[in-house]
Amino acid sequence: MSTGSTWLHGQRKPELVEMAERVGLKDYAGLKKAELETALDEHLRANQSSLSKDSTFTEYFRRPSSGLVKKEASSATTLGEEIKKPRQRRITQAKAKDEVEPTDSSEPETYTALVTRTPRTSLSFASAIPLPPSPSVIVDQIDQQTARVRQSMSTMWERSGISEYTDTLRDVLSHTFTVEMISLLVELYGLQKVVLPMKAITMIPASRIFGTPAMPLLAPDFFKLLTAEFWTTSSLWFMASLVLPYTFAYFFNLTLKAKHSPSKTHKKAAPEAQYDPLTYNISKALITWMVYSQGIRFGGLVNDVSVYSLDQAIPGGYLTVLIGTGIGVLTSIYEAVLRK
Question: Are 34 and 163 in contact (CB under 8 A)?
Fold first, then answer.
């Protein structure tokens, strides 16, 4: 893998998207991270003469240094000097042998044995001990092992796909539609506890092995579907939170007439929304305020029992619905400002 490919591999997907927009890469919206790296690598290599001056891609066009060769040469020189040292020691010991001449005829054998045997014994003992390499070689080995561990961990992280899943989840949550869906799920959670409550159908016996007590096995009470309370309360929430607000948002779609300034990059224009999120949240807030607070029943189509049951079912009452619509209004305005 080249230095430029490694540098692109270390970037996150949003950064790669910005680079693709900067260099004018086409048809990159649906590419995955690995495919986007390959496309950028080929585009940068094809346009190296014009893009190498851009400060954003300085790290991409940088060439690896020759520091490793110098380190290996210096380590080889150090090892060579260490190999030569025993020879110098032997020469010095030989000179000492020549200088020590016996003056008495009765002691030549003793001196000779002492001079000739002692260095050989020391050298054989020293050669049996494994000498450590030079510090530079140790540092190089540590750097290589560290790089291998880092590369293996990076490969495992990429294969797990956690980074891509995180980017996908962030893209999904970064929309006004997601905020509206979370608000609706909170309302549905409270509605289910009233119109379709959980009922114990049997008992799970206690277990002495795991030390668990007897527990009921719960399931939705589907017999509630045959009651009028279920249909009146569910219909009221369905009309007040979904049908009427989305109908107003579809016909009063202010985004259809919005004029966007021409983009300076090659980024594709975002598709027009089928409904206006700002109109949806405003109309939902008005309908909720009229039904729950002002007591408007639309000519008898809504009864007081259903309104009371739904108000008690939603966590926090109808004020939770108004807070959710307020957050939706703010996020829709903020998103519209960012699109400009």
Answer: no
pLDDT tens readout for residues 206-258: 888 888 888 888 888 888 888 888 898 888 899 999 999 999 999 988 877 76
Say if residues 272 and 258 touch (Cβ distance below 8 Å). Answer: no
**Residue pLDDT, tens place only, 281-309:** 999 999 999 998 888 887 778 888 888 88
Instruction: For residue 65, give both structure tokens.
Output: 């240094």
State the maximum Cα–Cα separation within the chain, in Å, rounded to a whole number.
Answer: 141
Neighbours of 307 (CB within 10 A): 20
Cα separations in angstroms, 16 against 55, 78, 171: 15, 45, 15
Q: At what angle do helices 13-23 and 33-46 cross, to 10 degrees?
A: 30
- Tell me the two tokens of residue 173: 């949550």
Q: How far apart are CA 288 and CA 237, in angstroms?
A: 10
> Two tokens at 101?
């001449």
Which residue, 53, 283, 309, 45, is CA-closest to 194? 309
Cα separation, 230 vs 222, in Å, equals 10
Give me the DSSP letters along 243-303. Answer: IHHHHHHHHS-GGGG--PPPPSSSPPPPPPPSS-HHHHHHHHHHHHIIIIIS---TTTTS-
d(Cα 249, Cα 177) in Å, to the nearest integer?
A: 13
Degrees to nearest 5, angle at CA 293 with 290 and 297: 50
Q: Closest by alpha carbon to 273, among 204, 339, 185? A: 339
